[in-house]
Amino acid sequence: MNLYLDIPLHGSIRIVNSKIQSPNPRVLTDIINSNSPFVIQTNNNIVIDKSFWKPVPNVIRYTFEYLGNNQFQRIQNSLNNNLISNSNYPDMIFKQKNNNNKLIGFILESPHEDEYQNNANSMIPIAPAQNLAATGGVIHNEINLVLIRLYTLYPTHFNDGEMIDIVILNPIPYQTSLFHVHQKALKSPYVTLRNNVWKCFWDSKYKK
Q1: Which helix (DSSP H) or strand (DSSP E) does residue 109 occupy?
Q2: Alpha-carbon distance 63 to 73, whole Å?
Q3: Mean of the per-residue pLDDT values for the chain?
């Protein structure tokens, strides 16, 4: 049995794995038995429908002012009314950026469980790193220390009074873990599945 992704890229179906290199049978069983509206079975194959693939936007999460002497001040409400309403953080979609602030990016991998709302069989994207107890929370709590460390390493890269936007982004903006299909924790063999799906996206669209 093969697992396919009906990715909305050029209207074509991208294969994740073949009969020679198939996913763990337990994973396939979980997907089949999930009763997910995103799963289609046809000709002994499993297809993850194109309606599943909704991109999570890259965002500007924080803005800081560099005060000099390795001191950074977080600017409150700097994103005004452009915030993503259902985000746990003060996120603004990155493509809406319209200033000349310095950019510092946190590059993740791909969205997982908390980056979507799965309402009425519809994937609703939110923003990257939404988990308050994991990546999102760590960034929120440690971002000041990261900036201080960056200044220590690259002091000539910062100017007094300079404004800095912190960008959170995923190289692959889709849920490659397929969590909202199988609802299983991200551990073996689901990590392997996530990796295969991620590579499928990367090779078919993002790899240069």
Answers
A1: none
A2: 9
A3: 86
